[in-house]
Design a protein that fits this description.
Helices cover 44% and strands 9% of the residues. By secondary structure, the chain is an alpha+beta fold. The chain has 3 domains: 103 residues, Double Stranded RNA Binding Domain (2-Layer Sandwich), CATH 3.30.160.390; 114 residues, Orthogonal Bundle (DNA polymerase, domain 1); 210 residues, hpI Integrase, Chain A (Orthogonal Bundle), CATH 1.10.443.10. Helix 10 packs antiparallel against helix 12 and helix 16 packs across helix 18.
């Protein structure tokens, strides 16, 4: 299209206006298509078409460029300005009209950008194994839609309009992102928030790469689903009763040794019991920081547990008296004849809590590739039922330890260190347990941090 045609075919009115969403809405449709230029970003124009649509374009008559951006109000003025700036930058770099059109046609989709980010960034050591799995699951479930989950597949059949996977990055806006968020939330509110946070990260990456001018993902707290946590816990007497069932020693032995007959008589899995008991004694995350540990991570001489990877990175914890006694017993079980902890013929020999299901197929035909025990729920449910306690998730053994420790020590810092919380953040994660506890912890801390009282100087008399 020549400069003359651009000028004459669709009149470009000389006066520029400060475009706003309100102003564009007020523009009336006429018998002929006309346009209004923006006084903020030179080149951005809104075309009011006689057919009844309003469309943003970037126009540079000198370079013979007229590139369609998007319909209004599919995107707003702010977004149109950002897109216009991107095109203008390409013009300054010497790109021709055909190059710009080609670049915009090959623009990444949301799914492609998500996959590209995963391929480039989502791998160790930046991301832990569990987090990587969450990214893969999110991509397969909500973007690539290759998930085996029948419920999610059924949701997609009924809600195809909620998809953003095939949308170009420039087409993403808060309207379609909110719709996408609500759609995921109909299945899992927690997943919905997680996927949006992932998209925010991906779009920040896209911005750094120059794919987009701004990050369109900017949800307010009130626009996300409220994070509801299960803060139920065991009281101190309940903790003691549970531990009496979880960890039972053979009283006849001079050295710490598990009483395997106790577990057999009470229909309890001794490996699962020691996972739960050890976690309860230390406040460890029962699965990621305890169930999967190897013997090489435990030191009998220094009484320490070294975690190579955890939610907070590499950490080393000192074992308390009761936890150390359990560890001593577990080292003995490793070679004890007939013990469920004794596996010397495969990789399970290295793990403190070996899985009897390793290498076997489950009901769905999937082979268990984890050499360590990964599911202790059945044992936990049986135990709480036998004791007559209300069911709480296994993870809440950590809550139980934390609130008990805080109640006894009255120290946020001490409890935070035991739990592995960050000192740099002022133990913010630990502070939540003061609210859960709902006792005198906060008052005690205020007392400790309160103003110092002046003490009278006392003269000590020495006698000859």
């Amino acid at each position: 299209m020549s400069e003359e045609i651009v000028k004459r075919k669709i009149p470009l009115r000389d006066k520029r206006k400060h475009l706003s969403d309100k102003y564009i809405k007020s523009l009336s449709f006429e018998d002929k298509t006309y346009s209004v230029g923006d006084d903020t970003v030179i080149g951005l124009r809104i075309f009011v078409n006689k057919g009844g649509t309003k469309t943003f374009y970037y126009v540079n008559s000198a370079k013979d460029i007229k590139e369609r951006i998007e319909y209004f109000p599919t995107i707003n003025v702010t977004r149109a300005r950002d897109e216009s700036k991107l095109i203008a930058a390409k013009v300054l770099e010497g790109h021709s009209a055909s190059q710009i059109k080609r670049d915009r046609k090959t623009e990444l989709t949301a799914a492609e950008a998500f996959k590209q980010y995963m391929d480039e960034r989502v791998h160790p050591p930046q991301y832990a194994e569990g987090t990587i799995k969450k990214w893969i699951s999110a991509y397969r479930s909500w973007l690539d839609v290759t998930t085996p989950d029948k419920v999610i597949k059924a949701l997609w059949v009924k809600n195809k309009d909620a998809a953003i996977a095939d949308k170009k990055l420039s087409e993403l806006n808060m309207d379609n992102l909110k719709r996408f968020h609500r759609f995921i939330g109909s299945k899992s509110p927690i997943s919905a928030n997680t996927v949006i946070e992932m998209l925010r990260t991906v779009m920040e990456y896209a911005k750094d790469k120059g794919y987009v001018a701004i990050n369109p993902v900017h949800f307010k707290v009130k626009e996300l689903y409220e994070k509801k946590e299960d803060n139920r816990r065991l009281t101190k007497p309940q903790m003691d009763a549970v531990l009496d069932r979880l960890i039972v020693y053979d009283k006849r032995s001079k050295h710490p040794k598990l009483n395997l007959h106790h577990y057999e008589e009470n229909n309890l899995n001794p490996v699962a019991c020691c996972v739960l008991g050890g976690a309860l004694l230390q406040g460890r995350r029962y699965r990621s920081e305890w169930a999967k540990i190897t013997y090489s991570q435990l030191s009998l001489s220094s009484k320490h547990l070294a975690l190579k990877q955890s939610k907070v990175g590499q950490k080393e914890y000192r074992l308390g008296r009761k936890a150390f006694k359990l560890v001593q017993a577990l080292f003995g079980e490793r070679y004890r004849e007939g013990s469920p902890f004794n596996y010397q013929k495969d990789i399970r020999k290295d793990y403190v809590f070996p899985s009897k299901m390793f290498g076997r197929a489950n009901n769905a035909g999937k082979i268990n590739e984890k050499p360590y025990i990964n599911n202790v729920r059945k044992t936990w449910i049986t135990l709480l039922k036998d004791l007559g306690y209300e069911h709480i998730p296994p993870y809440n053994v950590r809550h139980s330890f934390a609130t008990n420790a805080l109640s006894k020590t009255k120290s946020i810092a001490t409890t935070g260190e035991m739990l592995g919380h960050s000192k740099k953040s002022g133990y913010k994660s630990t502070l939540r347990y003061a609210a859960i506890l709902n006792e005198d912890v906060v008052e005690a801390l205020d007392l400790i941090d309160g103003p110092e009282e002046k003490e009278e100087t006392k003269v000590v008399k020495f006698t000859k």
